[in-house]
Amino acid sequence: MAVDLSHSPDVAELVDRTRAFVRDVVVPLEEQHGGVARTEEVRTELQRAAKDAGVFAPHVSPEYGGHGLDMCGRAAVFEEAGYSLFGPLALNIAAPDEGNMHMLEAIATEEQKQRYLRPLANGQVRSCFAMTEPAPGAGSDPAALTTHAVRDGDGWRINGRKWFITGADGAAFAICMARTSGSAGRTEGATMFLVDADNPGMRLVRHIDTLDESLYGGHMEVVFEDCLVPDEAVLGEVDEGFRYAQVRLGPARMTHCMRWLGIARRAQDIAVARASEREVFGSRLGELGMVQQMIADNEIDIAASRGLITQACWELDRGRSAAQSTSVAKTFCAEAVWRCVDRALQICGSLGVSGDILLSRFLREVRPFRIYDGPSETHRWSIARRVLRRHDKESTR
Q: Acyl-CoA dehydrogenase/oxidase C-terminal domain location, by residue (predicted)?
């Protein structure tokens, strides 16, 4: 049976337009700002340009102003957007907003969609996802969730401390995960709440100083202290938060991979250009065997990453859980992207270490991906457990 990996004409055309937009408009602005967008002026300029180019919001349905791409379609477009650190912000597909839009479209009520999804999808506002907590709270083990919410009249009172909440600075609202039943260590009893940023019970404590800086709005510590929200703030059903989180987490892992794969390709292009023009020891860098090996290994990592992303997206588009394939893809891609950028920097030598090109910025940005969305070690543990369970099941037949 033939395997057709081609996209529809509409998707292929959007890929081409995104590629041209990122190279012609976004990359120059990214280089001007050193890969870090710090102001609303930069964000709005980028998003206005993306709307003018017809490439804005490829992931949300046309009802909310997007292109309605499935996961396989997103893979190609997001990779092109990810060729620049500013590309995802321009197309409004950066974390955490992209994942929040996906989840809101899937499980929010119609009223919640109009109040939260619509302005988020068109770039009027930003959002954050408040799940991670300081130890011993929820981190790589979401079941360790300690933030709790209790009934209070016609609503809920939330108390807890979150940290590493990406994009919280300037976000119009948070999706907060809090325990509504059970105890820490249980994989049930969590609920998601929509909390407006002007709620006096939600307080931004501090920016966390991190290796990476390109995710807009930073990573913040956030406190929920007697934070009162109405019943209408419940996203989905009470006590079903962990189940709903899977609606977001699997696709979000893949969209992270798609975006960072674009940066791996950018790093490779920079390294290949340098290897083609730089002369050392009487020949071009690219004629040296060790440099050729690094270039080849980058090509292998890029191709393998794209294949694993495609497999996982194919499963997600068919309504499968894709838990194993997304874990495999996320683990491999996070490490492969790092290898690609690291090799590219090595090929460029002192130029790569310098701030004259963005490779050193790319290296700092991609390193945390081996921790974000589940560290590689946690994914490997999950991958192995699924394999062993499958073996046990098959051996008892």
A: 239-388
From CA 72, how far away is CA 308, in angstroms rounded?
A: 11
Alpha-carbon distance of 324 to 134, in angstroms, equals 27
**69-85 per-residue burial string, b: 16 or more CB within 10 A, e: under 16:** bebbbbbbbbbbbbbbb
Residue 96, preceding peptide bond in cis (omega within 30° of 0): yes
Domains and CATH numbers, the chain: 9-121 (1.10.540.10), 127-235 (2.40.110.10), 242-395 (1.20.140.10)
Q: Give percent helix, percent strand, percent coil of the chain, each to the nearest 5.
A: 55, 15, 30
pLDDT tier at 3, thresholds 50, 70, 90: low
* Pairing mode of beta strands 173-179, 127-130: parallel
255, 261 Cβ separation under 8 angstroms? no
Exposed/middle/buried for 100, CB within 10 Å: 0-12, 13-18, 19+?
A: buried
- Report helix, strand or coil for 175: strand
Residues near 162 by beta carbon (within 8 Å), at least 6 away in sequence? 130, 131, 132, 133, 147, 176, 221, 222, 223, 224
Mean confidence (pLDDT) of the chain? 96
Mean pLDDT of 228-247: 94
Cα–Cα distance measured from residue 216 to residue 91, given in angstroms and rounded to the nearest whole number? 13
**What distance in Å separates the CA atoms of residue 128 and residue 375, rounded to the nearest whole number?**
20
- Give CA–CA dist 74/82, Å, rounded: 11
